[in-house]
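Appendix C: a fully annotated inverse folding record. The material below is reproduced so that readers can follow the format used throughout the book. The structure is listed first as tokens, followed by the designed sequence.
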């Protein structure tokens, strides 16, 4: 197949959706497909070999200016200048994290597609791929549904839209903007040919919200490249006799932001540290952080140092791929108590691939993931007391920790390999072409 796939670049931020889009494009190319991966909005960043094109289409600056001042849309050639790598790179340096509470009108403009203020940007995007000749076009999320009809008309190919975590963004929009956005999404959903969800939970929720029939939705599981990960599970712990207990390292690998729950993990570790028989605890965190996250991280540091049960805490920054794998391998447990139903869960998959068991809340993608991989413990919620209870099952029992880690190590390679992801995607694209 000839596959024209778009990815919504996040600039400086290393985001799960960008990693997933890039990994899928790579794995499909390995299987013999002709794949183009084209970034939208901003550059696409991944910690693996990137296969996305350098040129950004439908650039964030030009779309915003056409939304804010429609006169910009009438100036030919301006969008190409605004989408230049130099200007986009400068904007990324000074951009803060995406705030849904402030982006409602711009979201509505994007969903309006060629009928809205960003008409010129939409038409320029469609024109830029008119001669691409794909068998299928793939959009990275349903917030871009306004592009489905123009891209289908320009290329003559069916359009497949990915569900990739949009429900959290939509839930945080102001009520009026959210209802307008959902209305446009439901309308535009009729112009797309097929939909794929990266998890069953998220696919079902978004399909219900947009009124999409079951036969138009497929599940394409997340796949992680095992290259560079350990070739064997962790060895069983050696029996200890007397002496001080060895410290247990609890790892956190995710974006450093309140919604990802690092502060909740710190409170859980403090609660656990105060219980009898618990060995010394070390909390190690790594992941991307924007400027606004620095004060949040300082709060976590202060929290870990409080009272008599203070725990060792260290933030290791944003690691490259090799350092990430070492970080996940060296942790005894990886816990990610996100405060929202996580739609993907890539860090949990990567932790299990490194042989390390996980503790995650019983919500979003996690129950189905652990049902398949069996590499961790589900907490009742992301509340600190529930995370502490789940952690205790692994922290206090090294043998169980090793067994759960080994089981996840084996199962995750069966269920969440790049090959399985590519096979799922191929089947979905065939369904879209045949529809």
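Designed amino acids, in order:
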């Amino acid at each position: 197949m000839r596959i024209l796939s778009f990815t919504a670049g996040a600039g400086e931020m290393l985001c799960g959706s960008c990693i997933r889009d890039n990994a899928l494009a790579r794995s499909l190319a390995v299987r013999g497909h002709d794949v183009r991966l084209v970034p939208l909005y901003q550059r696409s960043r991944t910690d693996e070999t990137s296969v996305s094109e350098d040129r950004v289409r439908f650039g964030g600056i030009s779309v915003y200016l056409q939304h804010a001042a429609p006169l910009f849309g009438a100036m030919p050639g301006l969008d190409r200048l605004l989408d230049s790598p130099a200007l986009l790179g400068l904007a990324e340096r000074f951009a803060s994290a995406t705030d849904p509470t402030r982006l409602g009108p711009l979201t509505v403009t994007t969903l309006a597609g060629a009928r809205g203020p960003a008409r010129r940007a939409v038409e320029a995007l469609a024109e830029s791929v008119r001669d691409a000749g794909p068998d299928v076009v793939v959009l990275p999320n349903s917030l871009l549904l306004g592009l489905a009809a123009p891209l289908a008309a320009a290329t003559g190919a069916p359009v497949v839209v990915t569900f990739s975590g949009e429900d959290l963004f939509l839930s945080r929009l102001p009520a009026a903007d959210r209802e307008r956005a959902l209305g446009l999404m439901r309308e535009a959903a009729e112009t797309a040919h097929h939909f794929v969800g990266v998890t069953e939970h998220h696919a079902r929720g978004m399909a219900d919200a947009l009124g999409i029939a079951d036969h138009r939705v497929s599940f394409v599981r997340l796949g992680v490249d095992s290259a560079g990960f350990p070739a064997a599970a962790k060895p069983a712990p050696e029996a200890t006799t007397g002496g001080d207990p060895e410290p247990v390292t609890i790892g956190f690998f995710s974006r450093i932001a309140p919604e990802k729950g690092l502060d909740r993990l710190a409170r859980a570790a403090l609660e656990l540290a105060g219980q009898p028989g618990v060995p010394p605890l070390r909390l190690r965190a790594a992941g991307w952080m924007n400027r606004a996250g620095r004060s949040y991280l300082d709060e976590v540091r202060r929290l870990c140092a409080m009272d008599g049960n203070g725990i060792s805490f260290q933030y290791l920054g944003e690691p490259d791929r090799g350092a990430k794998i070492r970080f996940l391998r060296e942790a005894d447990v990886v816990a990610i108590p996100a405060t929202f139903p996580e739609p993907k869960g890539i860090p949990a998959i990567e932790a299990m691939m490194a042989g390390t068991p996980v503790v995650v809340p019983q919500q979003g993608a996690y129950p189905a993931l652990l049902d398949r991989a069996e590499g961790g413990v589900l907490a009742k919620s992301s509340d600190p007391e529930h995370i502490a209870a789940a952690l205790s099952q692994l922290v206090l029992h090294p043998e169980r920790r090793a067994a759960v880690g080994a089981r996840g190590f084996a199962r995750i390679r069966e269920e969440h390999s790049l090959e399985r992801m590519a096979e799922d995607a191929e089947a979905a694209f065939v369904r879209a072409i045949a529809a």
